[in-house]
C-alpha cells in the first residue's frame, strides 16, 4: 500500500512505540491521527508531525467510535490503523494478599485485547469505503502483541493472556477481512526502550539488556516503526505475527 496521503490512526500514539510509529507514518506522507488518553502529550506529538490529537479510551466503544469519526472527518476514511495502546501491570495469580482481584485481570484484557479489536472493527468499517488499489487492497491493520504471548513470565498471566489473544486474533481477522481487501498483521516486540522500561532503575535495565542474545540493547520505537512501514508496503504480508526481539526467549522470571 502507498502510504502517502492515506489517513492513519495510531493508538497510544503520544509515546513509546506509538510515537515512533506516528512519526514514521507522517514522514511517509500519511495523515496521522494520534489517539491517546494523555492529551497534552498527544497534542505535542500531533503538532510535531502535522497531525491531529484525539482523545480515545480504546476499551470503550463510544470513545473509540467518536475518535475514529473525528479522524475520518479530518483525514478521510482510515486506511492504516496501528494498535500500540497497552498496559502491562505485573501481579501473581496468588500473592501475599491472596488471589489476584478479578478486575485487575479484566482491565488488562479490556485495554490490550478488547481495545485492539475495538479499533480494528471500527477502522475496518471505514476501510471498506476506500477505493482499492491495483491489488484490491483498501487498508492495513497492525496490532501489537508481545513475546510474552509465547513465553509469559511469572506475574504476567494477565498481560500474556491479552497479548496471546492479539496473536490469536490476527489470522482469523485477516481471513475475515480478506474479502474487503484489508490485511491484518501483528508485531511481537521483545525488550524495547519505551517509557515503562526506561523508567526502571539503571541496574535493572542493564540486567534486562544482558539477557538479549544480540544486540544486547533495547529495541527502539523507530525500529518497531520500520517494521510497521515494511508490513504496510509488502502486499503479501497478511495474517502473521512477527517477532522483533533480538532472539530473546523469556525465562520464567
UniProtKB/TrEMBL annotation:
<dbReference type="InterPro" id="IPR020904">
    <property type="entry name" value="Sc_DH/Rdtase_CS"/>
</dbReference>
<protein>
    <submittedName>
        <fullName>SDR family NAD(P)-dependent oxidoreductase</fullName>
    </submittedName>
</protein>
<dbReference type="Pfam" id="PF00106">
    <property type="entry name" value="adh_short"/>
</dbReference>
<keyword id="KW-0560">Oxidoreductase</keyword>
<dbReference type="GO" id="GO:0016491">
    <property type="term" value="F:oxidoreductase activity"/>
</dbReference>
<comment type="similarity">
    <text>Belongs to the short-chain dehydrogenases/reductases (SDR) family.</text>
</comment>
<dbReference type="InterPro" id="IPR036291">
    <property type="entry name" value="NAD(P)-bd_dom_sf"/>
</dbReference>
<dbReference type="InterPro" id="IPR002347">
    <property type="entry name" value="SDR_fam"/>
</dbReference>
